[in-house]
Structure formats: C-alpha cells, structure tokens
Amino acid sequence: MNKRILEMIGGRLVVAVLSLFLVSLAVFFITELLPGDTAQELLGQAVTTEAAAQLRETLGLDRPAILRYFEWIFGLLTGDLGYSHVSDRPVANLVAERLPNSLTLAAITMAITIPLALGLGIVAAIWRGSIFDRAISSAAIMLVSFPEFMIATLLVMWLSVYMQWLPALSFIPATADFRTIVLAFIMPVSVLVFGSCSQMIRLSRAAIADAMATPYVEMAVLKGASRGRMVLRHALPNSVAPIVNSVALSMSGLLGGVIIVETVFNYPGLAKLMVDGVSTRDMPLIQTCSMIFCGFYLVLITAADIIAILSNPRLR
Questions:
Q1: Cβ neighbours around 76 below 10 Å, total
Q2: CB 192 within 8 A of CB 209
Q3: In 3D, which of 197, 195, 187 has the Cα closest to residue 265?
Q4: Helix, strand or coil for residue 300?
Q5: N- to C-terminal Cα distance for the chain?
Q6: Please, which residues bridge with residue 82 across strands?
Q7: Report field, pTM of the whole predicted structure over 0.90
Q8: Nearest Cα to 257, choosing from 202, 165, 186, 191?
C-alpha cells in the first residue's frame, strides 16, 4: 500500500470524525429547539410552576446548553449514555433492547436486496436496450417515485385490511412460532426491499454498462469472449468501486426507511424508540438514537470511500 493511498484513507477518516462532531452539534441543539417543555410534558396535568422548576433543576435542564452538550459528548465517549427522562432507565439498556431488532430487520432486507438488485442490474446491463432492460429500468424508476410510507400504507390496505393475509402490525410475542415471525416480517421487509432495490439496480446497471463500453471489454468481445465471461472476468472486477458505492448508498437510505417502516408497522426497533422519545421530549434518548443512526450512515459512506480507493487500479 503506497503513501498516496494511506494519505487518502487518512483524509477520509479525518473527514468522517469531523462530520460526526458537526452532526453531534446539530443533533443536540436542534433537539433543544423542539417545541414544548420537557418538565411540563413529564408532569402532565399536575404541572405547576414550582414543580416544573424543581424538575428542571433535578434533570439539569436549568444549566447552560453548551455545558450540557460537553457533558453529553463526554458521556458518549466514555459509554455513559445517561438516563431516560420518561422511564428513568439507562438509555444504554433501552438501546440494547431495541437495537438487535432493527439490525435483524436491516440484515434480512440487505440479504434479499443485494443479490436481487445486483443480479437484475447486471443482467439489465448485459441485455441493454432489450425489453427486459426497459422493464427493469422502468420498474426501478417507478419504485423511486413512491416513498416508503406510501408503499407501506398500500400494502397494509391490500394485504391486511382487504385480503386479511398478513398482520397489520409487526408485533412478535416472545412465544411466537416460526410462522408468526415470518408473517410479521413480510410487509416491513418488502417495503424496505422495494425502496433499496430501485437505487441499487440503476447504479449497478450504469456501472456495468460503463465498464462494458471501455476499449478492453470491446477487445474481449472481438476476440470471441462470451457475454458471461466478458462481464465476470472483465467488466465486473473494474466496476467494484461504483457497485460498492451503490450498496453503501442503498444501505444508508435504508436507515431512513427503517424509521418509517418501524413507525407504520409498530415494529419494536430503535427507530420506533426514537420516535416515541420525540413525542415525549425524552432528550437523552432522542440524542443517543440520532447519533447511532448518523454514526451508522458515516461508517457506511466512509467504508465505501475506502473500498473505492483500494479497488482503484490507478492508485496501486
């Protein structure tokens, strides 16, 4: 690995750390601007001026925001995520209960999306201009035009309300059998797959099509190479960087889809926990969940950039 590659990777890592710092500033101070008062939300109808002031002092909300920001950042760096204002439980425990559910949903989605989208994108690039290519490209563009919440609503109305085939809510009891678990996952996973596939199909198709138009691939065709060999041995290895970027972009877009899907289907994941925290103005919970989502996004984008650098033959 030469010095230039190391410098480029180091630069990407520095940019990622600085971005995460700026995101932490935005997350903290934007949540501070949310309408309403945390103390009044917690006290409800029993709120009085004295009780609200005492609760703000107990929670530390009467201190300057900049001081609370640095205390929060220091807590994140040391693993102390604070306590939930609503449940009075450690935020780390609440996150640990919900994060595996969100990771399971994302893992199932990507296990279906990546081979399906890449396969369709590669086949569409091989048969450019064919009916199959036009059909796949049109379907991908159509799926991009439909937001996740609209797809989720249509699926609930059709499969749950009208046909009554699937449960409208993805609640999985502890004693659920395998069939119940599968039925609960079908609609949330389908919505996320529809949203993630469209972008990945178009980007992977474009990457393979560009590689197939290069002189060395055209030379392989003139020498009698088959379409399969031409793609697998020549076009695909030189399209790793854009394909990895397409996967990373789809996975980062998946984070936004998870928030919508978990809310619509009442799935007990981290995104639903964050949405519930917004409704109750549970600041430590909102801030921690937001940083986790932003951290995942930056890790994906940074990893895609590093893989693109390492796979670039001109830098070797």
A1: 16
A2: no
A3: 187
A4: helix
A5: 7
A6: none
A7: no
A8: 191
